[in-house]
What we know:
With 570 residues, the chain is an alpha+beta fold. The strands form five sheets. The protein has an eight-stranded mixed beta sheet. Strands 15, 16, 17, 18, 20, 22 and 23 form a seven-stranded antiparallel beta sheet that branches. The termini are far apart. It has 15 helices and 23 strands. The longest helix is centred in the last third of the chain and has 31 residues, at 501-531. It has four domains: 3-196, Spore Coat Polysaccharide Biosynthesis Protein SpsA, Chain A; 197-278, no CATH class; 281-385, no CATH class; 389-560, Umud Fragment, subunit A, CATH 2.10.109.10. It is elongated and about 90 Å long.
Amino acid sequence: MDISVVITVCPAHHRDEVLGRCLRGVAEQTLGLTRLEVILVGDGVELDPSLVPPGLSARRHSFPTPVGISRVRNQALRLATGELVAFVDADGVPHRDWLLRLRDRLTEEAVAACGGTTRRPHGRGDYEDRITTSRYILPCAAMTNVLFRKAVLDEIGGFDEALCFGAEEPDLCWRVCLKGHRFAYASDAIVTHRTHFSTRKFQLYGRALRQLERKFGAVLDISRRAELRVITDFYRLADAGDGELTLAQRSRLLAIAWGYGCAWVAELAGRARHIRPIDLTERTLQAQREVPALAAAVDGQTLIKPNHVLWWTSERGCCLLNLATRTRVELEDVAAEMWMGLMRGDTLADVRIRLEREYDVTPATLAADIEELLRTLLAHGMLHAARRAAALQLHDAFAKSRGEVWMPFQGRSMAPTLRDGDLLRVRHVAPDELAFGDIVVFDVAQARLVHRLLCAPRLRTRLLTKGDNVSRPDRPFATDCLVGKVCTVRRGAVRIEVERGRWRWRSRTIALASLLEAGAVSLTVAVRRRWFPHGLARRGVERRVLRRLGRCRRVVIGALLRTVPHVEAR
């Protein structure tokens, strides 16, 4: 079989006439019955085999008691044998060319999934398209009208059975996107679906929102107000004829807040289900590994798209999301065409020729626009200049050693904490796992630096570092340049665990002294530039102040590490 059609039957809409209409809609598909199989799974309901139309291959499975929609769909995936898996609810009626449109669009764009238009009965309008709209976090398809590649669903492990109703659909789609796969949208693939609104259902929406925050909060910006506004707008368009909500409808919207609050209280009481947060460590490790270079360059440097940058097509062009910095960029018209051409493997020359024909612009103007766009994408972290071979080898070593690697240290910028020739055990961590005073390793300006962290990474998207043996801090760098943090220092026969015992508070104290020195240096320079912009004598005073500040910092570090004051690196 080419396509397996999964029909889930829940107690809420278990009626023979409803399920019969859905099965007749599947049987009338123009794709042909010989290429289809139907998987009927009941959630605590008995399925009547006489409802299956003749000639339609069907497999049935019923759970004796309700077990949840996620477990029901996972059972259907285990029974499915097709290369493609389509999902539709029992109260949905697909149009005749539904599967044909979904399959053609999925194979045409070479994507992992394709969603269609879900239409309300009696001409009451369509549901909002959450695949191509640009106001959502990531594309999300409704499980009543979507076609997946079964290999992709097997790769991500199917549905998460720990989540409640309302959270399983965004969870599955977001995990597909975070694996680097894309969604397509077929507006002519139509399913008529009847939605049942109730206060209990909206309470589950609030609970689902809290569960999604717990699972994806570390990698995605999930806004409670934004989601509530989206549900409110949809509900107003769906059930309010004059655009105003009635008292009963407003009470149902309040049920969302009630469900969210109940989930939050259950967490405080320790009664909430265990939900494993999304971990992108391995994906971040592979950000510069096995990434093909694009047919574009800036200042002679070849560009690449890191794996932690996701993109998808939208109604106005395409959206880009950097998971490392949580930045989002929307491209329209010429910019979107250029980006999609580069993602297809086209060269900049081919992109220019095609855009000149479509938009009737001069080659000089188009070349300047493309150059400006590439620099903007570089500044937002959507594109990177190809790193040098040493950085690639380091990331390879991380992946092979499961996140840890030993590397030698060279230089005097961290003396006396680190000395030339020390061996460092570097462990890969996410930016949120860093703490004030940690010694971090990062790649910036075609070089690898080992310096101390001076800022709280939870409050910023860029990190500030400084060497223990230098007076000025480094230029802030983006979190996607982070390689890892130093856990162990091996100096001959001596092994120092910088994360444990006294070394931990020593690191915090050294970082505090460095931060105070950096602030004093910035203040001194600002005073000199504001009131004494000229005069060698004034600059001489500034140098003496900086030398004394550096001397105080070195004395503090020497007292903490029980060493003599050292010579400052230049």
